[in-house]
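Fold this sequence, please.
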Amino acid sequence: MYEQKSEVWLGYLKNNSILSMLNAKHLIVSNVMEGIDDIKWQTVRGRDGRVFPFIPQYVGQATADYAPIYRKIADFNSVALYENLLALPRAYPVRRLMALETVEKVRHSLVFFDMLPWYEAAVSEEDLREIGSSSFSRGSVSITKDLPDEVTITANFDGKGFVVLADQFYPGWKAYIDGSPSKIYKTNSVLRGVVVPGGNHMVEFKYVPLHIYATMAFSAGLLAFMLFALVRKAKVAPDKAVDAGL
């Protein structure tokens, strides 16, 4: 994607769905690409305060005029810094799940507005069957702890909810809800998602690299064996000296 032509990047800017889904709040854009200030969408504001693009089959009556979705913050010699006004937060709730198996299918759905990431997300068909529901209640989430190996989120849902964390789905990460283990679902093919019960809950993502722990355990075992062998060798040597009459 990084090697795409300017026209392709401009297409992503005009569509905006992928950038907003990935929590791309600020963008550094080459001044070679013109017309960014003219990219406008008709928008509506949801009950939770988030701003969505106006797509009739999704959100109904629009309440806002066409407005720019990027705000220029600074202009340099060859690049400009923009704010993406529709970017989703790093952690956010969604109301609906779709079954999409591959990155390409997710990308296609986003580009053609078959899926709006502002309140929809995608998981695999198998995961959707396991979850047992494609619709979820309204809720609010916020990040309260943000460390390299741990992210803590507070979540409040009227009923069963689904939280998306716009961090890469990667082996070694574990999820806990109020201290109890919970499954992380690969969401939108690249992100993390968890099912959260209704009410107020604490959702924790912790990095637990089992292969590192296994290596540490093996090293500790090997060290213990070597120490045991050295102690045993040291004990045997004096015994042999006594037998020799020394």
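The helical segments are 6-15, 17-21, 56-59, 103-111, 125-131, 210-243. The chain has a mean pLDDT of 84.
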